[in-house]
Structure formats: C-alpha cells, structure tokens
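seq:
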Amino acid sequence: MSRRNKVAVFLIVILGLAIFGYSLRDVKLNILIRDFASIHLDWLLIAVLCMILYFGLEGLVVKIFVDERMGHYSFKSAIRIPLIEQLFNGITPFSSGGQPAQLIAMLQSGIDGGRASSVLLMKFIVYQAMIVINFIIALVIGFHYMVSKMSYLSLFVVFGFLIHFGVIIGLLLVMFWPQFTKKAVRVILSPMRWFGKAERMNDMLTRLDTKIDLFYEESVQLLGQRKLLLKVALVTFLQLMAYYLVPYFIMLSLGYTQANIVMITCLHVLIVMVISIFPIPGGAGGAEYSFTVLFGSYITNSSKLVVAMLLWRILTYYFGIFAGIGALAIKPDQLKPHKRLPEHDDE
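struct:
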C-alpha cells in the first residue's frame, strides 16, 4: 500500500470521526452508552454476517468467471478482489479506484491482463444490471415515502439512477453495436482536440478502439454461455440482497422488531443510489444525512437513530476498508490454467 493511499485512509477515518462527532453533538453520553449496552448482539451478528456474505458472494462471482474461462482460481485469491475493491472504492472520489486495484490484484495471481480486464468488465455489467433492477423495484415501493419526507433528496435519487442507467446503456452499446460506439466516442471526445496534440488524441482513440473490440469479443462469448450468465446474475442478486438487508437487522438489534423488511430494504437501495453521486469518497456526509432523514420516522428515539447510523456506516463502509487493508497483506495463490489434452497424430 503506497504512502498516498495510507494518507487517504487516514483522512477518510478522520473525516468519519468528525462526522460521527457532529452527529453525537446533541446526544448525552450516558444515554448513548445505555443504548449501546442494550443492543441485541444476535441480530447485530446477523448484520455482520450479511456483509461477510456480500464480500464472499462477490468473490464467488470472480471465481466462477475465472474457473470457467481460464483455470482453477482459489477462493482465497478470489475473495481478495472484492475486498481490495472496497478499499480503493472507499478512498477515491466516485469510487474510481476500485477497478484498477482489482486488475492489479488479479495480475498478482498470474492472470493475463486482457483476460483479467474482460472478467472485471463482465462482473461490472452484471453488477450494474442487478443494481438497476433492484432500484426500479425499490423506486416503485419506496419513492413516495422519500418524496413525502424530503422531496429534494428524491432528485438525487433520480439523478443517481440516470447515471447507473446511462452506464448500462453504454455497456450494452459496446456489446451489441461496437461500430456505433466507436463513432460516438469520437464525437464525445472531439472537443479534446482543441486542448491537446493530435498524435496523443489518435493514440488514445486507438487504445479505446482496441478495448471496445476486446470487450465486444468477450461479451459475445459470455452471451453464448447463458447458464454461466444466469448463475452469475443470481449470485450477484443474492449478494446485493445481503447488503441491502443490513439496516433491517441493525434495527432489530436496537429493538425495533416491527420494522417492515420490504420498506427498510427499499429505502436502503435508494440511499445507496444517493451515495453514488457524491464526489467525496464513500459519500461522506451525504450518506449519514440520508440515513438519518429516511429512517428517522422508523427510529423515533434520536439517540438510537444515531447509534443505528453509526453501526450502519461502520459495517457498510469502514468494515470493507479495513478488510481490504488486510487483503493487501495476503499473498494470493497463482492461477492453475486448464490442462489441455495432448493432440494425437492421425495414423
């Protein structure tokens, strides 16, 4: 882990502590201690297990893709990928560092860079598709509640959805219409010619064309493996469900046993969509505010609302960051390529 990344982690922790401190400004210490002491640990443990399951299922998706197309990939190596992704997503604006970090982690296992990139792209496509599907369901169920509580927050939700939907559309264009995508990329990037050298621009377009062609070829192969695609989609859907259920079990741990599991899950989906558009790593500030606003009607005790927010943020954000730091220290196993049968000469 580079010095720059260590500084980023340190700053993220300091920022988080500052936000937590601000959230606790109106809460008496003795009441806070009482609320923490009264937590039902069995329900909280289930919330922790949901996060572990979330990381484990994403590791399983990586393993499924690699095992199917390249060779035996140990689960120890596969589970490193989502953990490292969580770390670098958590310390970079717009979660931009996760994809490059995953690629480097897969290269450490001896996986070819081109194939590693295609696996990550396929995983990303399925993940984005499941996010959009879950969001549409949550939008139908919980959007009216969000509008009634805070109408302007709903604008961020819609904007976040449009971003994710746009990503899906862009990926589908590459998968089914690569020539059009190349032309669209040239149109979109044409203003850059005014600020840079023509040679550099041409080199960049050539590299993009190569990546689009590679992505298209890999997409065609994946679409031809419908059973594999269905399996990965199902695992990804379960992965996201485990993540979205975390606030529900946190509420049960605080004694709110009458919580509506469907509504709580849908509200969490909407919060995640809001967080995704904040440029600050982890959506710091916006995430905490969104949680307290949307869950304030369910958790009417102000002290317990803060406790719920703290537990949620620790499990869904900081847990992944520190687990990712631990994953960096683990040496991955090398990929064992598929054995090819020897060719026999015709006699």
